[in-house]
């Protein structure tokens, strides 16, 4: 039995780089497409937001002299590149998808609006929502919170390279301990690096739960959908 009917899946651009460390790792892309196909065949409606950090991060560029607005716009375009790559991989796996963009760039993708996204979801297409919010100074974390709320998702599934939320970064602190569940307010009070704080606040204020899990382990996405407790739930 599926735990959710409609999800917003937030994918990390950095994870998409896989073993290459930069750009798109075709093996990792195919693995993501296969995991998404598995839950699509269960009848789950899937909206996806993917980061662009494997190609360019606006904030990092700004620290090296880039104009922040132009840097963020470059980052938005990076998410479109990743979205097109994921759409292509899904197509190769036999799954229909649609790329929507927050900035007009037909014929690369359709211009995003909520009702078009929901229409495509209800028609059985996977909807990949790219270019963030279309505005600078907003990350794809905030973009995914916004899109999850707009498409009326049951949950945001944040696929990362760690298996949940910890008291500290487990890749840097071996004493860090994992939460099975945690409230939005505790995440904010502890300043835990789950997502941007503005994204957490949006989810809290609109009652969109967040489930953080390791997307890089094959089969984990299906386990989450089936209710297996392998990550951390952030909720009221």
The average pLDDT value, as a whole number, equals 94
Number of strands: 11
Task: State the share of residues found in helices, binned by percent.
Answer: 25-40%
Integer tally of domains: 1
**Assigned CATH class:** Alpha Beta
Rg calculated over all Cα atoms: 17 Å
Q: Helix count?
A: 9
**Relative strand content:** 15-25%
Write down the secondary-structure element order: EHHEHHEEHEHEEEEHHEHE
Main β sheet profile: 9 strands, mixed
- Span from first to last CA? 24 Å
Low-confidence stretches: none
Topology:
Layout: E1 6-11, H1 13-16, H2 26-40, E2 45-50, H3 58-62, H4 68-92, E3 97-101, E4 110-111, H5 114-122, E5 126-130, H6 140-150, E6 155-160, E7 165-166, E8 178-179, E9 181-183, H7 184-190, H8 197-205, E10 210-214, H9 220-225, E11 232-235
Parallel strand pairs: 1-2, 1-6, 2-5, 3-4, 3-5, 6-10, 9-11
Antiparallel strand pairs: 7-8, 10-11
Structural features, described:
The structure is a single chain. The protein has 236 residues and is an alpha/beta fold. The protein has one domain: Carbamate kinase. 39% of the residues lie in helices and 19% in strands. It is built from nine helices and eleven strands. The strands form two sheets. A nine-stranded mixed beta sheet has the order 4-3-5-2-1-6-10-11-9, with helices on both faces. Strands 7-8 form a two-stranded antiparallel sheet. The two termini are 24 Å apart.
